[in-house]
UniProtKB/TrEMBL annotation, chain A:
Keyword line: Hydrolase
Superkingdom assignment: Bacteria
Pfam annotation, one family: Amidohydro_2
Species: Sinorhizobium kostiense
Protein name according to UniProt: TIM-barrel fold metal-dependent hydrolase
Alphabetical list of InterPro entries matching this protein: Amidohydro-rel (IPR006680), Metal_Hydrolase (IPR032466)
Gene3D superfamilies (UniProt xref): Metal-dependent hydrolases (3.20.20.140)
TrEMBL record, chain B:
Domain of life where this protein originates: Bacteria
Ranges for domain MIP18 family-like: 14-77
Name of protein: Metal-sulfur cluster biosynthetic enzyme
Amino acid sequence: MYKAPDGTEIFVVDGHTHFWDGSPENQRNIHGKQFVDCFYAYHTALSPAEQLWPKEKFEKYTADDLYRDLFIEGPDDVAIVQSTYLKDFYKNGFNTIERNAEMAKLYPDRFIVNGSFDPRDGEKALEYIHFMKETYDVKGVKMYTAEWNGASRGWKLTDPQAYKCFELCEKLGIKNIHVHKGPTIIPLSKDAFDVHDVDYAATDFQNLNWIIEHCGLPRLDDFCWIAVQETNVYGGLAVAMPFIHSRPRYFAEVMAELLFWLGPDKLLFGSDYAIWKPRWLVEKFWAFDLPEDIARERGLELTPEIKEKILGLNAARLYDIDVASRKAALAASPFSVAAE
Amino acid sequence: MSTALSANNRRGELWARLTRVNDPELDEPVTDMGFVERAEVMQNGSVEVDFRLPTYWCSPSFAFLMLDGIRQALDGLSWAPAYTIRLHDHMFADEVNRGIAAGKPFSLIFDELSSDQDIDALRETFRVKAFKRRQEAVLLALRKQGLTDSEILGMDLSSFDAATVGGDEAEAMKSRYREALIERWPGRKGCEPAFVTWDNREIPPDAFGAYLAELRAVRINMEFNGALCRGLKATRYKEMDVVDGEPTLVDFMLDRVPPRNCTGRHVQR
């Protein structure tokens, strides 16, 4: 719960968090080392100095660290923990559903654990989707289209095998498809983070929600064009958020584009923990106003009501979280008392 | 004396050429971005260039375009030296360096790594983006100077050349825009419009707002990459700033302060 300076209590759903193991013991090869190094560079490049972690802790942190940073020191009420396997880079995977679910069991009611699958696995992928639904009752999945798999270094949402998987997701009620579309890394021959495949997938699967993590940045223009015509496309703000600290005016321009094109009901807060901790992001976001010239040019306002939607209500809607009853349950929890 | 002088001249010429190589995605010189780790004229006149990108995962096609730009820059050196270009710490560094060492043309190296991407189309995409970004910067600068939209859009190339845009940065962008304009339409005359769309259409004043919005979207994307790349490169290569002369946590983490001075503070955290 985030308590605004005026005392208002804001329900926070952190749409994009991780419980990863990027430690040297788990790294399969140089790619695994470089992957977590790159995350660490994001962490150091865009965090306030007092928020920096030592490398060793960043590579592998405990469930207690995560719980404290999100829910006790941090303002999250519910966190969606995403799974990203990267089995070609990490012996036990980077951030698997097993590890996430094991951790989430310790803290019931706090986490929504999302799964992941790789359509390139063919029939096995379909079996795995069934497995995730039966074992973990997943409501959503994280798609990492630039993930390596043997000789393949990326895939598209529009691949025929991917469509088979999405058909199954729809059938089983796995309705929230988080797709990583972020800064350009990895694939050589085609840019696996290009956002155009979202256009087709979102049109063809109207019953699924397509949450585009990192808003397609740096392909924000492409993303906005797609999102504005697809009612089921949402923007996840992870990675865009921390610019609020290092480049606030730039952050304002990105927010203005998103609010102008997508509107306030289709944006989801995400800290991308452990790259960034939610507390300073939420505090700065709550205190943030669009500069007057940008607001005027776009005819926009970033009101407290809009911020409240972005920080939690939009995600609550997608994940069928009953905010009132969840608030009541959390108020009775000893952990939130300890945080006061 | 004259040898030293000529070595200096050669060094100057080398860097002058390298500063004209742009990161295609950011439209900023690779030298400004700090990607050229080392560029040296050896005793025998040969040239060595070491190149490093902000992340191991930087798009290899972009890396390719920059290395190709460097190759062209070195091909243009007045003393026609032998040269080596090395890419470091990149997922495809080995393949690329082997290819360069074997004297393969870049297009061949690229084709071997990627069979289905049209590098010329990619180049064209970036050319369009650079044109738009530079144009927006100049348009906004002219507005800031107090010119009306009609005055700005009505400028021909001669009056554009005569205009002042205020500030070194804006002036630099003005000349970069001019370059992009002339590259797009070589032989453009002084009496022709200074501001047109990439498709050579004139921009009517009543559509100016919408057009600027389109340009702004291009800039926002490019700035995202620029800000990210600079930050990533700085942290990857530990070019940390010292805040107010005091060591920061990063300094402690990197053992840049004597342990006895930092133990107390470190533990207190």
